[in-house]
Amino acid sequence: MFSIESMTEVYIYMFITLIVLFIYLYPKNPLSPTISSLKTFFTSWKMILHFAAIAFILFLNKIELTIEESMNLKYDLTPLFYGWEGNIVYTIQNFFQNDILTIILVFFYVVVFTSLIIASFLVYLNEKDHKLFYTFCYAIMLNYGIAIPFYLFFPINEVWAHEPAGVSFLMLDVFPTFETEYRALSGLNNCFPSLHTSISVTLSLIALKSSNMKWKRIVLISAAIIIFSIFYLGIHWVIDMIGGVLLAVFAVYAAQRIADRDFKFGKRKTHYYAQNTDANETIQK
Asked: Is the pTM of this model over 0.85?
């Protein structure tokens, strides 16, 4: 039976996934997108700064668990969510539970999810769609930036960890070392909103604006599978998913507005310099 034993294996599977993804997207020359994207990225200080901002937000998300421990909150909102939902997640898990499906969904939750985030940067850079690139950057920042305060002040445990729910943590069937290897990236009570949902929906909404039909298809199908996996694996509540969808819609809307403003400002700036250059050339003549 397929299993994942460490984060090293996760990174290897991510690398293989990215290779397969680019062979499908660009069959004639799958290496070209990566080379072209990296060349574009490392020659633009603006892109490097945006990537650094994302890295900083992700760093804050990682140390959020340390901050949360020091806060020593005494309340738990999990019973409230269970009272609203009852056994919905339990019903979903038991109806669909299957060993092969478990393997597929763990792979999508752990490997494909992060692979799609990385691929998004490369695809939009390779296709010279800088507006979508920056929209994606801003949307990622907003997703994490808005989610972190909820994780700090609204502790809600994963469904499997709430005993009355009767849900199994199927992740461990495929990734038995999840708690020691992956848990540092995702707190047990960091449920609402679901970032796997919000990022997946964000990926989809932005991909819909891409001209690459293959990319749209991959992202939309993968997002649907990942969102289903959060219930099947016993991780998130339905309310977490709803919160994730709302977060994604807002993040993409706001990111588009910011990117539009940046590009309009850039065009005005270019037009201003062009006018001044023409005027100086006229004076010199």
From this structure: yes
